[in-house]
Amino acid sequence: MSIYVGVGGWDFDPWRGTFYPQGLAKTKQLDFAGRALTAIEINATYYKLQKPELFERWGRTVPEGFKFAIKASRFCTNRKVLGEAGEAMERFCGQGFTELGDKLGPILWQFMGTKQFDPDDFRAFLALLPRNQAGIPLHHVVEPRHESFRSPAFVEMCRAAGVTIVFAESDDYPCIADLSGDITYARLQKAREAEPLGYTDAELDHWAEIARTWQRGESPPGLCYATEPITTGPRETFVFFISGDKVRNPAAAQALIARL
């Protein structure tokens, strides 16, 4: 099982000269990022639907073995009643992201920090998630951002649905390290501009060891769990450097790739 490491998006002006070479055309940024990283989380899909031919072009631009995670539409997740998201979810899943082919990674469903855990409503939402689209299996990951989700009931619900809980390294959002679903998905959000690589060498060594532990299907010690830590079989693992001092995220991702 592979470990994929990347960042959110690929068009960020402060990366010009810090990640991208000066003078690199914007049309060449994804090609460059695809060779420097092993995954990217697409953010544009959160705001609006994209065209199938665009996904197909993105898939052609990156090398074999690269993965795109797709951030789900806000119209699916930013709503009072999640169980009523079926129509919006159908539109989102039908936009053509399967044109990425074997470059398609997980679908990230991120919830607002004000959204509290309502067991019945969230169970209804999980039941809406399609298991495949156009014959391609889908892997779903959920990122709650309210402390009420740090609950054994939430973890067991996701395990029963085969859905992965995002591990968030953040000062603002709950940390839930419990393994669920058949992959692991982490979003590390504490990069610091004062550190050339975003994190210290010791911190990057630490995250490399945690990523290997996840890859083996084990629960790393020292993280925050809502239930008793479990061991599963080997699993694909995704680690994204997101937010924080964003200018350092590509350097952090490259440094973690080097360690792995």
Tell me what the structure shows:
The model has no long low-confidence stretch (mean pLDDT 97). With 260 residues, the chain is an alpha/beta fold. The chain has a single domain, classed as Protein of unknown function UPF0759 (TIM Barrel), CATH 3.20.20.410. α6 runs parallel beside α7 and α8 packs across α9. The protein is built from 9 helices and 11 strands. It is 31% helix and 18% strand. The strands form 2 sheets. A 9-stranded parallel beta sheet has the order 8-7-4-3-2-1-11-10-9.
Q: Helix share of residues?
A: 25-40%
The gyration radius over C-alpha positions equals 18 Å
Let me know the largest β-sheet.
9 strands, parallel
Distance between the termini: 13 Å
| Class based on secondary structure composition and strand pairing | alpha/beta
Fourth CATH level, the homologous superfamily? Protein of unknown function UPF0759
Write the CATH architecture name: Alpha-Beta Barrel
State the total count of DSSP E strands: 11
Secondary structure elements and their pairing?
Elements: E1 3-8, H1 29-36, E2 39-42, H2 44-47, H3 52-61, E3 67-71, H4 74-77, H5 86-93, E4 104-110, H6 119-128, E5 132-133, E6 136-137, E7 140-143, H7 152-161, E8 164-165, E9 167-169, E10 183-188, H8 201-215, E11 236-241, H9 249-259
Parallel strand pairs: 1-2, 1-11, 2-3, 3-4, 4-7, 7-8, 9-10, 10-11
Antiparallel strand pairs: 5-6
